[in-house]
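Why does residue order matter? Because the sequence determines the fold. Keep that principle in mind as you read this record.
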Amino acid sequence: MRKILIGLAASSAMVAAMFGSAGAAVVPNVGPKADVAAVTATAVRDWHNHNEFHMNGVHVVGDYALFQWYGGESAGDGVYKRVSGEVWKKIVVGGGEIGEVNLTQYISSKSIAHQLCSKWPAHYSPC
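Structure:
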């Protein structure tokens, strides 16, 4: 019995370390902090009617941003484009993985799509 309890405690600690208290993995943001903050604020504003909407990593390259979201029993990816300064416009937000090839349909740059898809932790890449 003691071995089972120790195993459960170790498993719980590992899950807590991976997912934090909010229940989602902590994915590092990539890109200029001001751009990441502006994209996050725009997405939160766009989703203000969805109480369970959470961001799970934002990657910004130039005038494009790719982010992961989750809420309730759903999750997916979104793409935003800078229209001026810190103003960002939603290009697409959907459920599931967007994929690098599909991403190039929205931003028409293979190089930027590849950069946006890079540096995500294993098992959390939207591409």
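The CA atoms of residues 33 and 60 lie 9 Å apart.
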